[in-house]
Every structure is written in C-alpha cells, then in structure tokens.
Amino acid sequence: MIDMETRHQVYFANRTALVAYATRILGSRETAEDIVQEAFLRFAPANTNNGSTGLTLAYLYRIVRNLSFDLLKRQKIEARESQGEPPFWSLPSEMPTPEDIILVTDEVRHMSRILDELPVEVRVALEMHRFGGYTLEEIAAHLNISVATAHRHVRTAMMRVATMLTASTS
Question: What pLDDT was estimated at residue 77?
C-alpha cells in the first residue's frame, strides 16, 4: 500500500502534466487547475491498494479525466436550463382547427382526382418518383421503358398537377 507521502510526491511531480491533460479536455487552464486540485483532494486520502507508483499515477489521471467530463456534462445541462425555454415536451401542441382539416382533406381529394386523370404509366412514374423516392433508372426498369421516357412521364405529370392546382386556386 502506498503511503500518504508517496501520493503527495506523485501528485506534485505530475501536477503540470495533469493540468495540461485537463486543459485539453476542458479548453480552459483555469478550470483545469481547479479540477486537478479537486482530484488531489480525492486522491490523497484514498485507501487504494495500488502496488506501484505507475498505477497510482494512472488512478490520479482517471480521477482528473472523470472530474473533467463530469464538469462538461454539468455545464451542458446548466446551459440548456439557462436558455429559459421549457423543454419541448412541456409545450402545448397546436391542434389543427376543423377548418384546417377540411381544407387539407379537400386538397388531398382534389390531388387524387388529378392523379386519377393521368394515364396509368405516367401516374405510376410520378408516384414512384415523388412518393416512393425511386430514381428514374428504377422507374424505367419497373415500367420497362427508357430512362428518357421515365423522365418525360414524371415531368409531364408534374406539369399537369401544377397546372391543375393553379387553375383550381384561381
């Protein structure tokens, strides 16, 4: 078991390196010095049965590391709380009004009618591209058409939908 005097010698011999180590973690030399001091207060009276000075030094570094990361976590939590904003889950959610629901339902119904009026191959190409996220190559392979034709189908459908939606809002 390493005695108190040996612990003090290990600490004082490595204090500068410990401060540099903590500074790299924390980004502040002043804070690092505070952490190293606190680490010493925890390290000096410890009753660990470390057989060598090397293990004792490793234990001291671990204390500095843990205290540094604990401080960073605490600072992150405090910064979040000091923003003055309540957590997202405590905020009331805005419920759509019945009028909003009717408007969206009407728009979906109108969009469905527009899509139903398109030729089947053109509608499938548009749905695969816009709703399914398929590439033009995948659409062409699925419909057994060329990539240029798949592109033309998607473009034609998009123009038709845009024209019909514009006409209905006017």
Answer: 83
Say how far apart CA 123 and CA 113 lie, in whole Å: 11
- Whether the pTM exceeds 0.70: the reply is no
Residue entry with tokens 């000075």? 53
CB 26, CB 35: distance < 8 Å: yes
* Alpha carbon distance, N-terminus to C-terminus of the chain: 88
- Between the alpha carbon of residue 98 and those of residues 40, 101, 169, the distances in Å are 65, 5, 20
Highest mean pLDDT: which range of 101-105, 114-118, 138-142: 138-142
Residue 60, pLDDT > 80, answer yes
Own/partner pairs, 141-146, CB within 8 angstroms, 24+ separation: 145/121
**Distance between CA 123 and CA 90 in Å, rounded?**
43
Calpha distance 32→76 (Å, rounded): 17
Measured distance CA(126)–CA(117) in Å, rounded: 13
Return the higher-pLDDT residue of 85 and 152: 152
Structure tokens at 26: 């924390």
What's residue 89's pLDDT?
A: 75
